[in-house]
Structures are given as C-alpha cells and as structure tokens.
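Re: the 174-residue chain
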Amino acid sequence: MSAFPARPLRRVLLSTLATVAGVVLLLTLKPHTTASAGDVAAGSAAPAPAPSATSGTSGSSNGPSSGSSNGSSNGSSSKGTSGTRTVDGDTAQTRYGPVQLRLTLTGGRITAVKAVQLPNDNPRDGEISGFAIPQLTQETLAAQSAKIDTVSGATYTSEGYVRSLQSALDKAGV
C-alpha cells in the first residue's frame, strides 16, 4: 500500500520542478531592445544629404513621368539617365532594428541593392537578415519596383526593406 501514495507525490514533485525550471528559463531570456526616439531622429537625419548630393543631376521633379524624360541632361531619350548613380533610402525603424538600403541605378533601372543598415542586435537577427535580404534583393531586381512579397519568417525586416526601398525610389524619381 505504501507504493500507491508515492506515485501521486512523485507526479506533484515532477510537475513542480518542471514549472520552476520553466519559470527560471523564461526569466533568463533577455528582452529585445528597441531604438529610442533620439536614435530614430539621428538615424534618419544622417542619410538625407547623401541622396541629394549623388542624384543632383537627375531632376527629381520628373518623378511622376515614369522616368522617360529623367535624363535629358545626359542625352538619353529612351529610359531615363544613362549614367550610374546611387541613392540611399530612408532608415526604416522596425521592431528588431533599423533597415536602410542603397540603390544603384543605371539607365533608370535598379541594378544593385545594398543593405546599409540591418537589425543585428543578436545572432538571430543576423540569421534572419542573412536569408531574407538576398531573396528581397532578387525580387527587387526582377520587379524593378517596391511591389515585392515579404519573406516568410522575416516579416518586420521585409516591411522595413520595402519602406526604405520605396523612399530611395522616390528620391531617385523612378
């Protein structure tokens, strides 16, 4: 008869230990930090002069014309500017950190996309950016616009990518 009461006691003891272990594990996790308002202002103010300096010859007032008359100063009449230029997008603040892109445009077409800033507070951020950014870049080059799909598992990074991409395209007048 003594074996029968020991089993419920053992179950209670095991469930109590498992609960304590779970609580300890949850308490040891570090919460993800977000950028403060000062960081957001500093991050978005810094890249603003660069696009105007690098794209000063493009005539951004021709943006709504879909790029067909953008490069009149370069002598090109087919698809915008014939030269290569780079434009920095605005820094998009996401839940996990900033995302900022630099576009290279040749002849009015996106030829390269480089990530200037990506979330990198922990190894998981780097892992997510590592698999999402190449996919997003490939889609951008194929679509030649900011109308691209988000990457599953990297929703916040994808949304920041699209916001920064669209701001760069707006600055470029494309």
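The chain is about 45% helix and 15% strand.
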